[in-house]
Amino acid sequence: MKIIFLLTSFHIVFLMKVTFRASYDHKNDTFRVRYIILPCIVLALIFHPGRSFSPMEILWSFSEWLEAVAILPQLFLLQRTGVAETLTSHYLFALGGYRVMYLVNWIYRYAMHGKVSWISWIAGTIQSALYADFFYHYLTKVMLGKRMTLPS
After folding, report:
1. For residues 131 and 5, what is the distance between their CA atoms, to the nearest angstrom?
2. Higher pLDDT, 46 or 23
3. Is residue 60 pLDDT above 70, yes or no?
4. Please, which contacts does 45-48 make with residues 24 or more away whose CB atoms are closer than 8 Å?
5. What sign does the CA torsion over 67, 151, 22, 142 have?
6. End-to-end alpha-carbon separation of the chain, Å?
7. Quick check: helix, strand or coil at residue 149?
8. DSSP designation for 150
9. Neighbours of 77 (CB within 10 A)
C-alpha cells in the first residue's frame, strides 16, 4: 500500500511540474513555504514520540506537523484570488474529509484499544480547524451549485 501511495504521490508531482506547468499562478502564489517548514522542524525536535532522538521518530513527527499545515499555501492562494475552480474546491474538500476520517479513526482506536498518539491528535485538530472556514464556504456555495468565492 505504501508503494502505491508513493507512486501516486510522485505521479501527482510529475503532473504538477510537467503536464500542468502552464496553469501555475506565479503572480498570486506568494506564500513562503519556509514559514511552515521551519516551525515544523522545531516542533518535531521538541515533540516527538519516545525519549530518544531517533531520526525515524523525528521524521515521523515532522511529517505529522507538516501535514497539519501543508494546506496553508493553497488556502492562502485561494484567499488572494478570492475564487476557486469547482474541481479545486472538490479536491480540497476531499483532502479535508480525509483528515476528518483520520480523527474518527483515532477516536475509534482510543475507544477500542486505548492507544493515543497525542502528536497526531493535536496535528489533526489543527488541520481540521484550518479547513473549517473552507468547509463552510464549500457547503454554502459549491453544494448549492454556486461558484465558490472567498472573502478577500
Report:
1. 23
2. 46
3. yes
4. 47/119, 48/119
5. positive
6. 40
7. strand
8. -
9. 16
Confidence of residue 152 (pLDDT cuts 50, 70, 90): low
- pLDDT tens for 95-139 read 888 888 888 888 888 899 988 888 988 998 898 888 888 888 888
Which is more confident, 36 or 29? 36
pTM above 0.70, yes or no: yes
> What nine digits make up the cell of 137?
464556504
CA–CA gap between residue 100 and residue 117 (Å, rounded): 16
Instruction: Taking residues 12-38, report their average pLDDT.
Output: 88
Please give the DSSP secondary-structure letter assigned to residue 148.
E
The cell 448549492 sits on which residue?
A: 144
- CA distance linking residue 41 with residue 152, whole number of Å: 31
Is the alpha carbon torsion for 46, 47, 53, 55 positive or negative? negative
3-state secondary structure of 34: helix
- The three state secondary structure string of 68-136 is HHCCHHHHHHHHHHCEECHHHHHHHHHHHHHHHHHHHHHHHHHHHHCCCCHHHHHHHHHHHHHHHHHHH
